[in-house]
Write a structure and sequence with these properties.
A hairpin with a 2-residue loop joins β7 and β8 (246-247). The protein has 13 helices and ten strands. By secondary structure, the chain is an alpha/beta fold. The radius of gyration is 20 Å and the shape is globular. Helix content is 44%, strand content 13%.
Length: 352
């Protein structure tokens, strides 16, 4: 609660009194909701065995991630809490952007939470991440506080980049950012993998990019060197179906991004299933350490527009967005799974 109250104080600076009253009421509720986002149930850590369905497709791979996973109650709480925190933070960002507390570019991650939460659940402390400008969720999971992230978006000195980076340039330990240029982070991620290999580190570089950046030439240059030198890099394509306002099918001759590494093996993952993402990430870590790079495509969906200046409905119908929210939301489907296998109850979720 103290952390989020700090966000409130930071955002109140240099704001007119009339706007302050409106924004304070919103932030008070945000702080209250986020403070309740903890495991207060204090129950035994039981586990269940689950079978993943339609979770993976393979390209040039002899082995594959396991379809049979064990989910502990404590793990379920952590996964749900991580996804909910990222969702609420992004929704708060949208509200503060509309109120002009946050200005400039702002790209939101809502709808894609299973990607970052599932990967983070499988990663080790020594593993590294670099991604594009849709970076708020990763900054939080890699150790940045909500306070630092929100303060950065509001251009305050207490932000994770001292207010100078804004939405697209946020950082944390072993998290090499948010990067504002489309695809520019991919060769940097390969370079981080080279550093791991050169220094004999037992670490993997997760290099994330979107379906739009998948058509950049520098991506294939990075593939070439990573494969040539057998670098411990996992190239992760977060395919949210749209590069700005262009659908993947209109921009790519081959929209099966996990197959586009050619000489690099690939795996397609249901990016709306947090357990599938976790299982695939565990597999990729083990393989990248011994055999070199992989391409992992996470098929997901973004609810907001490309950025806050994009309404997101000029190139897709509102009905499409609502259909995904209704039938395939990553948080809702995980909650339903936990309820069906009796790992958590409705009362437990109310307490989280």
């Amino acid at each position: 609660m103290k952390m989020l109250l700090g966000v409130q104080r930071a955002l109140r600076q240099n704001v007119s009194h009339q706007l302050l009253i409106r924004k304070a009421s919103f932030l008070d509720q945000f702080c209250k909701d986020a403070d309740n986002n903890k495991d207060k149930t204090d129950k035994p850590d039981k586990s269940v065995e689950l079978t993943l369905e339609n979770a993976f497709k393979l390209y040039n791979l002899d082995d594959e991630p396991t379809d049979y996973v064990t989910l502990k109650r404590s793990e379920a709480v952590k996964l749900y809490t991580d996804m909910q925190t990222v969702r609420r933070m992004e929704n708060a960002c949208a509200e503060l952007y509309r109120q002009k507390v946050i200005r400039g570019f702002c790209h939101l991650y809502a709808g894609q939470e299973a990607c970052c939460a599932g990967m983070w659940a499988a990663m080790r402390p020594e593993d590294t991440v670099i991604t594009s400008y849709r970076s708020h969720g990763w900054t939080y999971l890699m150790g940045g506080s909500v306070y630092e992230i929100m303060a950065e978006l509001a251009q305050k000195q207490t932000g994770c980049s001292r207010g100078k980076g804004g939405s697209m340039h946020t950082y944390a330990k072993n998290f090499f950012g948010g990067n504002g240029i489309v695809g520019s982070q991919v060769p940097l991620g390969a370079g981080v993998g080279l550093a791991h290999a050169y220094r004999c580190r037992d670490a993997v570089s997760f290099t994330l990019y979107g379906d739009g950046a998948a058509n950049q030439g520098q991506l294939f240059e990075s593939f070439n060197l990573a494969c040539l030198w057998k670098l411990p890099v996992v190239f992760v394509c977060e395919n949210n179906k749209y590069g700005m306002g262009t659908s993947a099918n209109r921009a790519a001759c081959n929209p099966n991004y996990y197959t586009r590494g050619d000489y690099i093996p690939g795996i397609w993952v249901n990016g709306m299933d947090v357990l599938a993402v976790r299982s695939a990430t565990e597999f990729c870590i083990d393989r990248a350490k011994t055999c070199g790079p992989l391409v992992m495509e996470l098929e997901t969906y973004r609810y907001y527009g490309h950025s806050m200046s994009d309404p997101g409905t000029s190139y897709r119908k509102r009905e499409e967005i609502e259909q995904v929210r209704k039938t395939n939301d990553p948080i809702t489907r995980f909650k339903t799974l936990c309820l069906n296998c009796k790992l958590l109850t409705e009362e437990d979720f109310k307490l989280l």
